Amino acid sequence: SLSIGIVGLPNVGKSTLFNALTKNDALAANYPFATIDPNVGVVGVPDPRLPVLAKIFGSQKIIPATMEFVDIAGLVRGASEGQGLGNKFLANIRETSAICQVIRVFDDPDVTHVDGEVSPSRDIETINTELILADLQTIERALPRLDKEARTKKDKDKLAVVEAVTAAQKLLNEGVTLFAGAEKAGIDVSLLRELHLLTAKPFLYVFNLDESELTDEDLRARLRDMVAPAEAIFLDAKIEAELIELPDDEALELLQSMGQEESGLSQLVRIGFATLGLQTYLTAGPKEARAWTIRKGATAPEAAGVIHTDFQRGFIKAEVVSFDDLVEAGSMAAARSAGKVRMEGKEYVMQDGDVVEFRFNV
Ligand code: GDP
């Protein structure tokens, strides 16, 4: 399944953040692997539409979409050469679908920085260098084999792969990640897929700030520029850890007193979900109001298959209403008489927030 790996240098607040992400979530109990592997956390994706839906349908339960975060230890200078937990680190990060870098901005004389002083730009560079070196090693190992295969078989598709891998190597040698530079360099990253390159994964950044820096717009703009086009999330991990201990209304009050509207954790999960190229559709009834995870661009039968493979196999049609139309109408019956409920067939491409009932043969 799709997961986001959390990486960063030591003492930047990774564990604090990961614990806060996973601790307040009762969902984890339903996912056995999450309790077996303490480095994997299953997190519910915040969705304000669900309580609204539950009210309309009188649903007893709310079940949000979920996503996985993996706490990946061992990123230090030299990790690509096997320093620290080097090889284990690389194996773990390879399995994730996106990389979330935690960057320390907060200053605290009691928390030492591995490189002596706090510098977000240097830390970003250190991490990217390790990921780039790891990718260059992967390429150096694979290229002779790919090249030989392509030449002996005179295989056009394989020659295209060799060409893309060679272009990627050049870019990486210039110190540029594939995430940041592949498109501009005209490299089709889908041709690199079999190599599982680390810097080709989508990146997002969490800047761990001091409380007093949370509202510093100049600072935020500077940090955002450092990592664009990646998404940047600004939070104070220590405060996030406090927020999860509070009842919702008190947590919101504390956030607002710091000039924030949404917790950093909530932003991270929401933005992380989108970074993975995912979206949700909704189902509701008296039992539960629920969000289901699909890839952007998924068709109605594919979406049905997320609930049950039989639903996909026996798909007939989907009864669909957009969340906004449903809320405006006030009930399913009212939405129907207003002509807002559509019958969609096999070709229909799902839209985020579609409220759906599937018709199928078993
Ligand atoms: P990791 O090594 O990256 O996992 O870092 P930890 O989460 O273990 O944090 C290292 C130390 O920094 C701990 O003592 C944390 O309490 C502290 N820390 C984490 N986040 C913050 C923060 O936002 N502000 C301050 N002042 N300290 C923090």
Strand and helix layout:
Elements: E1 3-7, H1 14-23, H2 32-36, E2 40-44, H3 49-57, E3 61-63, E4 66-71, H4 86-94, E5 98-104, H5 120-153, H6 156-173, H7 178-181, E6 203-208, H8 217-227, E7 231-235, H9 237-243, H10 248-257, H11 264-275, E8 278-284, E9 288-295, H12 300-307, H13 309-313, E10 315-322, H14 323-329, H15 332-337, E11 342-344, E12 354-360
The protein binds guanosine-5'-diphosphate.
Residues 8, 10-16, 106, 108, 111, 208, 236-238 line the site of guanosine-5'-diphosphate.
Strand order of the largest sheet: 2-4-1-5-6-7
Order of helices and strands: EHHEHEEHEHHHEHEHHHEEHHEHHEE
Bound molecules: guanosine-5'-diphosphate
Shape: flat
- CATH architecture descriptor of the domain at 297-360: Roll
Strand segment count: 12
* CATH class descriptor name of the domain at 297-360: Alpha Beta
Straight-line N-to-C gap:
27 Å
CATH topology of the domain at 297-360: Ubiquitin-like (UB roll)
The biggest sheet amounts to: 6 strands, mixed
- Kindly report the average pLDDT value: 90
Portion of residues within helices: 40-55%
Given as residue ranges, the uncertain stretches (5+ residues, pLDDT < 50) are none
Oligomeric state: single chain
Given helix and strand content, the structural type is alpha/beta
Please identify which CATH superfamily of the domain at 297-360 we are dealing with.
Beta-grasp domain
How large is the count of helical segments? 15
Please indicate the percent range of residues in DSSP E strands (runs of 2 or more). Answer: 15-25%
